[in-house]
Amino acid sequence: MKKRVHAYYSGYVHGVGFRFTAEYIARDLNLTGWVKNLPDGGVEVVCEGDESAIMDFLNRLEDRLKRYISKRDIDWQEYKGEFKDFDIRFY
User: Fold this and answer.
1) Segment 55-73, tens digit of pLDDT
2) What distance in Å separates the CA atoms of residue 79 and residue 21, rounded to the nearest whole number?
3) Which residue, 1, 32, 88, 89, could crosslink 83 as a Cys pair with Cβ 3.0–4.6 Å?
4) Where in the sequence numbering do the catalytic residues fall?
5) Whether CATH 3.30.70.100 fits 11-71+84-89
6) pLDDT score, position 12
C-alpha cells in the first residue's frame, strides 16, 4: 500500500549530513519527496512510496543518525503521488 509520511526531527541535526543521508536512503528505496533544514534548527522530511519502504527509510535514517536526534514527530498521511524523485530543498 502506498503512503505518505511527514516527519520533523530536532536535536543536533544540522551540519551532520542528515539531508544527504535521507536523500541517499530514500533514493535507494525508490521513495519520492524531499528533505530540508528548518530555520529553527530542525529538519523536515516528506516522502511517499510503499508503506514498508517508508518504514525501512525511517528505521535506517534514525539508526544512522540517532546520536543527533533528540525528538521526532511522524505524521502518516494518504498518498498523493505529487513527486517524481527525492531531493534536498532549501529554506
Assistant:
1) 999 999 999 999 999 999 9
2) 23
3) 32
4) 19, 37
5) yes
6) 95
* Burial of residue 56 (number of CB atoms within 10 Å: 0-12, 13-18, 19+): middle
pLDDT at 90 (0 to 100): 87
CB atoms within 10 A of CB 32: 18
Task: Please report the sign of the dihedral spanned by the C-alpha atoms of residue 61, residue 63, residue 66, residue 72.
Answer: positive
Strand partners, 2: 50
41 contact partners, CB below 8 Å, separation of at least 6:
10, 13, 14
Check pLDDT > 70 for residue 91: no
pLDDT for 89 = 95
- Domain range summary for the chain, segments of one domain joined by +: 11-71+84-89
Closest CA to 3 of 57, 76, 82: 76
* pLDDT bucket at 5, cuts 50 / 70 / 90: very high
